[in-house]
Amino acid sequence: MRTSLLLTTAVIAALTLSGCKKEEEAAAPPRPVLSLVVAPTALPGTRFAGTVQAKVQAALGSRVAGRLVSRTVHVGDLVKKGDELAVLDGTAYELAVRSARAELSSAEATLTSAIASEERQKTLLQSNAAAKAAVESAEQSREAADAGLIRARTALVKAEEQLSYTRILAEFDGVVVATGAEVGQTVSPGEAIVTVARPDERDAVVDIPEMAEPIAVGTRFQVSLQINPAITVKGTVREIAPAADAATRTRRVKIALENPPDTVRLGTTITAELEGPDLTALMVPETAVLTKDGKPHVWLVDAEKGEVHLKPVETGASAGRFVPVTSGLKDGDRVVTAGVNSLEEGQKIKIEDEASL
Asked: Which fold has domain 91-164?
């Protein structure tokens, strides 16, 4: 009798504990998870950041060394062809011009005297009052004086040309985009003092990493302003750097913009996106993909029921931290992005936060 009573008590206790455990399991709170609503996203390698630059620009400087005494323009100024942009101290070159002019005058006088002497000797030779050798000597003197005059004229032209290099003039209508020297600074021959660009023809310049399928000249892009993506303009690749940068391993690509509006100013930061089919995909983080039975799966969130279900998918080659899903998901599906190995089928969840691409 006592043994039966003990067994009954044990059974009741076990049933009670089992009921409590079920109540605890039923009362378990939903698990917070990070999730993401998938949407078509540009594939990596199809969008590049860059800036707007002039198709034609020239760094203008002097061909001679000197001290900069004047610079009449600043960045952003509009200039016309022939406008004076900067001036170097030309004192030494002015003195050189004066010296060359004096040498020219001396050479002209020498030639005049040599011509007269030659004519006189020829006249004397006709009357047998002078030797033939004297005439030949006079001819040589005249030829030497003629050569001296040519040298003097050439020296004067060179000196005047050197003096003209002290004035830096605009080669074409444009806008000043950079200055390389300030007043009082001594500049070397060829050193850029003012950079002028043509604002009418503009390029989008981007640095593109080495790709399995390299971009070719003629490739089409759509360029948008980063400050206002609604402003877009079409463009075509017109130039690709022949070699990659040694440090970044990227190639500089210039995209000729087609009729860009005035809002696409020089120096503006842009995003260039490749045009063409199949350039977008449903991208999910690598942490959202669970491998089961050798195949990729994701946890699909049922927002109405607040639970998750395992969904088989097909993926493409990973690109950085993200994987393109080629089938199994559709635009607008929500997937769990973290802790995928610790979830169970039908588990109640709570959307704690959203991940972002």
From this structure: Helix Hairpins (1.10.287)
